[in-house]
Amino acid sequence: MSVSTSEQAGAAPKSRLRSFLDGDVWYSFTRSPVVMLSAIFLIVTFLAAVFAPYVAPHDPFDLASIDLMDASLPPAWEADGDPRFLLGTDDQGRDVLSTIIFGARISLIVGIAAVAFSIVLGVGLGLISGYVGGRLDAFIMRVADVQLSFPSILIALLIDGVARSVISRSAHDEIALYVLVFAIGVSGWVQYARTVRGSTLVERDKEYVQAARVIGMGPTLILWRHVLPNVMGPVLVIATIHLAVAIITEATLSFLGVGVPPTTPSLGTLIRIGNDYLFSGEWWITIFPGVALVLLVLAINLLGDWLRDALNPKLR
Amino acid sequence: MIGFIATRLFQSVIVMLTVALIAFALFRFVGDPINNMVGQDTTLEERAALKERLGLNDPFFIQFARFAGNAAQGEFGFSYQHRRPVSELVAERLPATLELSLISAILALAIGIPMGVYTALRRNGLLSRAFMTLSLIGVSLPTFLIGILLILFFGVILRWLPTFGRGEVVDLGGWTTGLLTESGLRSLIMPAITLALFQMTLIMRLVRAEMLEVLRTDFVKFARARGLPDRYVHFKTALKNTLVPVITITGLQLGSIIAFAIITESVFQWPGMGLLFIQAIGNVDIPVMAAYLVMIAFFFVVINFVVDMLYYAVDPRLRVDARGGH
Amino acid sequence: MVALLDIKGLRVEFPSRRGHVVAIQDLTLELAPGEILGVVGESGAGKSTIGAAVSGLLEPPGEVTGGEVRLKGERIDNLDEHQRRAIRGRRIGMIFQDPLTSLDPLQTIERQLIDTIDHHLAVGEKEARARAVNLLDQVGIPDPNVRIAQYPHQFSGGMRQRVVIALALAAEPELVIADEPTTALDVSVQAQILELLKSLCREKQVGMILITHDMGVIADTADRVCVMYRGRVVETGVTTQIIGAPRHDYTKSLISAIPRPDRRSRRFPLVTYIEGEEERPEKIDLGSHWLGQSRDFGAGEDVMLKAEDLRMEFLTQRSMWRSKRKYLRAVDDVSFEIRSGEVFGLVGESGSGKSTIARLVTGIYRPSGGSVTFAGQDLTALKTRAEAAPWRRQMQMIFQDPFSSLNGRMRVRDIVAEPIHFHRLAGSREEAQKIVKDLLELVGLGAAAAVRFPHEFSGGQRQRISIARALATRPRFLICDEPTSALDVSIQAQILNLLKDLQEQLQLSVLFISHDLPVIRQMCDRVGVMRHGKLLEVAETETLFQRPSHEYSRHLLDLMPKLEGLRREEVMEGQSVA
Fold first, then answer.
1. Which of C44, C405, C408 is facing A1, going by the closest CB pair?
2. Region at B288 (left for phi over 0; alpha for psi -120 to 50; beta for the rest)
3. Is A275 close to B148, i.e. CB distance below 8 A?
4. Spatial distance between the Cα atoms of C260 and B200, rounded to a whole number of angstroms
5. Are the beta carbons of B225 and C150 separated by less than 8 Å?
6. Which domains are seen in chain C, by residue range?
7. CATH of the domain spanning A32-315, picked from 3.90.1720.10, 3.40.50.720, 3.30.450.180, 1.10.3720.10
8. Are C546 and C245 contacting, i.e. CB atoms less than 8 angstroms apart?
9. How far is A233 from chain C (nearest CA, A)?
10. Given an 8 Å threshold on Cβ–Cβ distance, is A286 in contact with B286?
11. pLDDT, tens only, B172-211
12. What is the pTM (predicted TM-score) of this model?
C-alpha cells in the first residue's frame, strides 16, 4: 500500500530543509489559512515586542513626553479622539497602543522565560525519573502527582506570596520579574516531567537504546545522545500550549496585583489599571490591552492545536 | 479493597502533613510572628515573655505538632491584618466560595461533558466545528477578562445585573446563602458563568480527546464489526470507557475551580475565601495564608480520594479478583 | 449453485495528497459455504483491505471504486450504512488479530455476548444467555457458566481469542473473515485456535476467509489459497497445488523463501522478487581490510562463551516487606557453552526466557546469580563500565524489531560510526567514514545509504543497517535475538543468508535466538530448548530435529507446520527466481 521503499532508496538523499518542506507538517501548515494567519500575527507581535522602543509611536515611560492634557482621550476614530493616539490614552496621558506594545514585550519575556525554566526542570526530572526508575522515580512522580492536583495558578500565587513575605517591598519590585518567572516556571514543570518520563520509559526499552548499551555507552551519554532527541517531539507541543498558559498566568497574577510592578506594566497590569475606569466609560484603557492579550494567546493556542494534530500520526 | 483504601488514606495523610509543614514553616519562619503581634513600643523583655508564652522556644517538632493539632481543629491563630481569629474569618467567607464553586462546577460539567462527547462523535459536523472554535477562544480568554467583559456588557452597558458582591444573603444557622433571595441569585449569575466558562471549555476539549482515543480502539472496531448500532457503540462501549479518564479530569477541574475562584472573587468583589487570600498575600497576612493553604489542600485531598474510589468502582481491572482465573 | 461470497473485479483506493493509492485492484474470488479460503501475502499486499471492504469497514478515506461484492447472490458493496450494519455481525462475522484489545475491558463477557445475540436475533435476555453459554462451550471455554460472568482481563490471550470467536459467531453468520487470528498467539495456542476455527466452519457450514502472512497457517487450515502481491491476486488455487506446484513467479519465490522444517539446506535460494537490491556483498579482502585487521583477540579459545547457573529474577509485586515481594524467575539456573566459530541456537515460546539470556550475556541486565565467562574472562566479576568495555566491544547484538533498533534522529553513517568513535577504533573521522562505507557495502546496502535516515528504509534494509552497526566494533561474538521474526519471509531469507555469509567470512561465534524451529534448523549448529526459564535440552541441531530427547521438544516439533507436499525449486545459488 505504501510507496515502494526500494524506489525511495534509489532517489537522491534529501537535505533536512527539503524533507521538511516536502513533509506532511509543512503541507498541513500551508493548507490551513487560520494557522498561517496566527503564525504571521505571532511573528509580527514578536518583532514588535523585541523592537518596542523603535516601533512604538510614543515612549510611555518617558515622563517628559507625557502630557496630562492628553489624559483619557478615546480612540482616534471616536468623536473626541486625537489622531496622534490611535487607541486613545490612559488617565496619565500615555498612549494606549504604545503601552500595549511595551506590555506585550513584558508578557512575552515572562512567558517565554517561564516556559524555558519549566522545560529545563521538567524534561531533566522526567528523563532521570524514566531512565533511572526505582525509588527516585517513585518519589519524583509522587511529588508531581501532588503538585498536579493543585492548579498551577495557585502554586504560582503561593510562591509569589511567599516571596513577597520574605523579601522587602522595594527589593521585591526589582526582582519581581525573576520571582514571577520562577513561580510560573515551577508551577508548570509537572506536565513536561510526566510526558518525558512516559516517552523515556518507552524509548528506554526500545532496541536502539539497548544497542547503545551493548556498545558500552553509559547512561548520561545515552540520555543525551539517544533518548533526549527522541522525546522532544511532544515537549514542543506542550511548550506551545504552555506558553499560552504561562502568558495567561502572568496576566492573571499581574491583574490580581501580585505580578509585575506597575512601573513596568505587562498586559495584565494594564488591564488591572484600566479596570478602575471601566465604570466611568473609559473602556478603551482596559479593553484594548485585553483584546491584545486574547489575540496573542489565541494565536499561540491555534498554532499549538495545529501542531499537536500535525505531529500526531494517528489523526492523519 | 480495604488495603486499597488504606493506602490511599495513608497517602492523603502524608500530603496533608506536607502541606501543613509548608504552612507552618511559612507561619513560623517567614517574617517574625512576634513582630506582627505587638506594637513598636514593646520592650525586649515583653517580647521574650510573649515568645515563651506562645511556645516559640519549644523544639521544632513540638511546635509543628501543636500547629497541626490546632489546624485539625480549624484554629489558625489571629489574622495580622483583621486582628480577629482566622477561624472566624474563614467561617464567614467559606459559604460564599463554596456556593460559587459548586454552581460553577455543575455548570461546567453539565455543559462541558455533553459538548465533548458530541464533538467527538460528530467530528466533522458544522456544530462541532463551531463548538471547537468557541472552545479555542474559551481557553484563550483569561478568567478575569471574561469577568470584565461580562461586567462591561451586562453591568455597565445594559445594566441588567449587579457587578459586585453577593447581594442579600440569608443566614441559616451560621451558613449564609445567597441562593434564597432574588438579589443573591442575580448576583451569582455573572461570577458563576465567569468561573465556569474556562473550565467548561477545558473539560469539553479533554473529554473530546479521550473519547476520540477510545473510538480508535480495537474493541470499538470489533463492536462495530459485530453490527451493533451506533447508539450502543457510542454510549455503552465508548462512553463508559471514556468515563475512567474523565473522572480524573473532573476531579482536577473541581480543584481548579476552587483555585480560580480567587480570580473571579477578585473581579466581582465576591466576599469569599479567595478574596480573603489575595488580600492576605498583598498584606503579608501569614496566618490567613497558612489557613487558606491547609484548607485548600484538604479539599483537594478529599476530591482526589473520591476520584480514586470512583475509579475503583468503574474499572473492574483495578479490583483484585479473589477467584483469580485464566 | 450460488456462491456464498462472490467478489468480481473489486478495486479499493485510498486517495491521498500524493495521488490515489490503489490498495486492491481487479480482485476476483469466490467462496462456498463451509469452505476456508486462505488469503496470503506479505505486508502491504492489501490482504486486510479485502476484509474491510467486504464488511464495509474501510477506514476513510479508503473507498471501493470498482467491481462488486455479492453475498449469496445479493450485492452488498453498494448498500447504505444502515443496511450494511444489518449484515455485519448477523451475516458476516469478523475476527481481528489482537485478542487483548478486541474486547471491551469494562463489560463482562456475558454482557457483550448477550447484547450482540439479542440485537441480531431478538430472542430475549434469557434465551440469549443460554445461547451465550452454549457458544462459550463450543469454542472450548471450560466452566462457561462461571467464566461468562468474568471480565476480559481475567482471561489469558488464547482464551480471549476464543471469546472473540464466540462473539463473531454469536449471531450465526454465514461468512467469517478472520484477519491474522493467530499472529499474536504462541505456537501451541495457535494450533488449538486454528483447529477450533476449522471444526466450527465444517460444523456450521460457515465460509471463512482466513487472512494471514503465514504459509504454515494456510497449509494447515485452508482449502484453497489466494496469493496477493501489491494489491493483486497473482494466483488462486487449491492449497496443495499452491504450495506444491506454484505457477506464478512470485508464489514460487515466496514458497522457496520459507525455511524448510524437514531438512537443512546450506543457503536460501535467492529471493529477489520483492527487494531487488544487490544481494552479493562486495568481496572485501579481509586479510588487508580494517575488519579483518588487528582483531586483537588471543589465539582461538575453544569455548567462546560459557554461562554457568545463570539466574534472573524480576520483581513482579512490590511490597515494603521482603517476604511479601513476588519475583518472576525469567531465567532459572541456566548453563551452556558456545564454542568458537559455532552458531548456537536457543528456541522456545514467548516468555521462556531466551531473550533475557541475550540481555544477561550482553550486560543489559545484571544477573541475579551465576556467571558469564567470555573468552576466558568472567564478565560478571567486572565492576565498572570502563573495565568491561574491551570485552563488550568484542560482542555485539542484532535485535528483533528493525523499526525500533535504530535511532530515528540519526543518519545511517552516524549510527554505524557511533561504536567506532566510542571505542576509538579509527584514527580519524575520515577513516571512520571510510569504514562505515565499506561496512554498508558488506551488508549489501551500498555506500549511498550513509547519508539517509532510517525511516527511508524498509524493514529488511534496516536490519542490514543493524548488522553493519554490530560489525563496526569488529566483534567476534554476535547475538541475534529473533533477527527476522518481524520481517516478511522473503526478506527473512535474504537476511538469514547474509548472516550466514558473514558468520563464515568473519569466523564469528553466534548466539541465535528464535521461536521459529525451521529457522533454527537452517541456521544453527547446536540448539538449546527453553521453557519457563529453564534450559531443557541441548543437542546438535540434526539430532534434536530427528531424535528429540525431551518431551517438550517433541511437543514443539509436533506443532511445527509441516508444509507437506511442499515442492521447492532447488535453485542454484546466485540465480534469481524472478
1. C44
2. alpha
3. yes
4. 63
5. no
6. 36-59+80-239 (3.40.50.300), 303-394+476-560 (3.40.50.300), 411-474 (no CATH)
7. 1.10.3720.10
8. no
9. 11
10. no
11. 777 788 777 888 888 888 999 999 998 898 889 888 988 9
12. 0.81
Inter-chain residue contact A230 with C473, CB threshold 8 Å: no
Question: What mean pLDDT is predicted for residues C553-557?
Answer: 89
* Segments making up each domain of chain A, as ranges: 32-315
DSSP-based helix, strand, coil % in chain C, nearest 5: 35, 25, 40
Task: Pick the residue of A166, A179, A242, A248 with the most B CBs within 10 A to test the interface with B by mutation.
Answer: A248
Treating both helix axes as pointing N-terminal to C-terminal, what angle do C459-471 and C429-442 enclose, rounded to 10 degrees?
A: 130
Please name the residue of chain B whose CA is at the shortest distance from the CA of residue C103. B219
For testing the chain A interface, which of C16, C271, C379, C404 should be mutated: the one with the most A CBs within 10 Å? C404
Cell numbers found for residue B184: 443573591
Chain A residues near residue B30 by CB distance under 8 angstroms? 162, 165-166
What is the Rg, in whole angstroms, of the alpha carbon atoms belonging to chain A? 24
CA distance A34 to A26: 14
Sign of CA dihedral C463, C468, C472, C475: positive
Residue A33 near chain C (CB below 8 Å): no
Instruction: Name the β-bridge partners of A142.
Output: none
Nearest to B281 among A149, A150, A157 (CB): A157
Q: Look at strands C224-229 and C232-238 and give their pairing.
A: antiparallel
Contact B226 C156 (CB under 8 A): no
Ranges of each domain in chain B? 1-81+283-326, 86-282
> Which H or E run contains C345?
strand C343-347
Sign of CA dihedral B112, B118, B122, B127: negative
Of the candidates A59, A28, A218, A6, the residue with the CA atom closest to the CA atom of residue A131: A218
How far, in Å, CA of B259 to CA of B270, rounded? 14
For residue B240, name the pLDDT band (cuts at 50, 70, 90): confident
The pLDDT value recorded for residue A261 is 79
Which of C96, C98, C101, C104 should one mutate to test binding to chain B, selecting the residue with the greatest count of B CBs within 10 A? C104
pLDDT greater at residue C305 or residue A162:
C305
**Residue C551 CB: number of other CB atoms within 10 A?**
10
Backbone angles phi, psi at B283, to 5 degrees: -105, 10
C-alpha cell at B46: 515583653
A42-80 pLDDT per residue, tens: 999 999 888 888 877 777 777 677 777 777 777 777 777
Determine the residue of chain B that is closest to A302 in CA distance.
B136
Query: What CATH architecture is B86-282?
Result: Orthogonal Bundle (1.10)
**3-class SS of residue C214:** coil
| CB pair distance less than 8 Å for A1 and C392 | no
Average pLDDT rounded to a whole number, residues B290-302: 86
Q: Nearest CA to CA, how far is B175 from chain C (Å)?
A: 42
Inter-chain CB proximity A230 and C408 less than 8 Å: yes
A77-126: per-residue pLDDT in tens?
Answer: 777 777 777 777 777 778 888 888 888 998 999 999 999 999 999 999 99
User: CB distance C388–A208 less than 8 Å?
Assistant: no
